[in-house]
Amino acid sequence: MAAPLPPIRPNTLITDDIEVRIVDTNEPDIFTNVRPLWGPPGGRGVYGGTIMAQCLSAAQETVSPSLVVSSMHCCFLLGVSTDTPMVYGVERLFDSPNAATRSICAMQNSKTVFTASLAFRKYANQHIRDKRLHFAPAPIVHPPSTEADPDSWDASRPFESREAYTVHPVPADEAVHKRTILQWVRARGRIPTGRQAHLAALAYMYDSFLLGSVSRVHRVPRYTSCAALRRLEELRGRADPDDISTTVYLEGLARKEKMEFRGLPVPGNEEVSMLVTLTHSIYIHAPAAVMAHEWLLSETHSPWSGDGRGLVIQRWWSRTGILIATCVQEGVIRLNQDTNLPETKL
């Protein structure tokens, strides 16, 4: 039985949210979260990056420190509540001096809510040893200031992000599958030395605005639609502290969306009503270059959407331009619209 979790603390560092511990010393491959799970204000459940990062943290506890994760393949099965601890069961599928494979079953209330398969390998500095090394170059955009963002609407998150589309604008007539979203992301605070913490922090940040990129490239509003603005107006009239926090958070997202869509044609009859991740795969290319508390650049595009689903591909570069990771995510996307109007693109 897991011990009671400590009270939630505001503005926790990302290393707090990714931390796990062994449930019982007699079961060294069973882990649970150390602190309460974080969910976005106004959201329906736990932020997906939390589960992925804690799974990776648990798996890393069962492999040799000389091995680093090279890929992680995740399936989201059920919604996760912020009120109940998670239990992560790690299965050791394969071990050798140069590689390892782990399977993880994540459970809440005795139900499997998430599964993951992870591959680890002994890392060699391929920049020195492999002359055939190649990687896609980073887009040419200006990195943001190292100073903290004065707009603190998202201060509840243990990481911060800044859009780069104002530096690298997307033409209004660009084909949907060619539209890209550029974003700088970094963890708040400083992460201790060691690859494992930085890689788990990166897994935590992967899920930020990833699936939502499908609606963004279609310019379908999520936070500035008429219905979303009505809900926001209702929240403004409430005095409950949770409602106030949610209002500030949603107002910040609405400002960002309004700025992104400024001057672009936006469908007037559609809004995003649901986004749910189905699968998420992560490939780590250069683990030694991952410094999660420094600015990292992500580029996201959606090669396909349809049948109520969407696919997104995201690449991550270090501030020095090294391609460090590639992510692929598929999820369910639902829109609210007038049924008498033509069928949506999604």
What's this, in brief?
The protein is an alpha+beta fold. The chain contains seven helices and twelve strands.
**Radius of gyration, CA atoms, in whole angstroms:** 20 Å
The CATH architecture of the largest domain is: Roll
Q: Please identify the top-level CATH class of the largest domain.
A: Alpha Beta
Largest sheet strand order: 1-2-4-5-6-3-9-12-11-10-8-7
- Could you name the CATH homologous superfamily of the largest domain? Hotdog Thioesterase
* Secondary-structure element pattern, one letter each: HEEHEEEEHEEHHHHEEEE
| C-alpha termini separation | 45 Å
CATH topology category name of the largest domain: Thiol Ester Dehydrase, Chain A
Bin the helical content.
10-25%
Uncertain regions: pLDDT < 50 for 5+ in a row?
1-12, 338-346
| General shape | globular
Write down the domain tally: 2
Overall SS class: alpha+beta
What is the number of beta strands?
A: 12
Sheet-strand content, in percent, reads 25-35%
Can you give a write-up of this model?
The chain folds into two domains: 112 residues, Thiol Ester Dehydrase, Chain A (Roll), CATH 3.10.129.10; 160 residues, Roll (Thiol Ester Dehydrase, Chain A), CATH 3.10.129. It is 20% helix and 33% strand. The chain is globular. The N terminus and C terminus are likely disordered.
Present the secondary structure layout:
Elements: H1 14-17, E1 20-24, E2 27-33, H2 48-60, E3 67-76, E4 87-95, E5 99-108, E6 111-122, H3 126-129, E7 159-163, E8 181-187, H4 195-206, H5 213-217, H6 226-236, H7 241-261, E9 270-284, E10 296-306, E11 309-317, E12 323-337
Antiparallel strand pairs: 1-2, 2-4, 3-6, 3-9, 4-5, 5-6, 7-8, 8-10, 9-12, 10-11, 11-12
Helix pairs in contact: 2-4
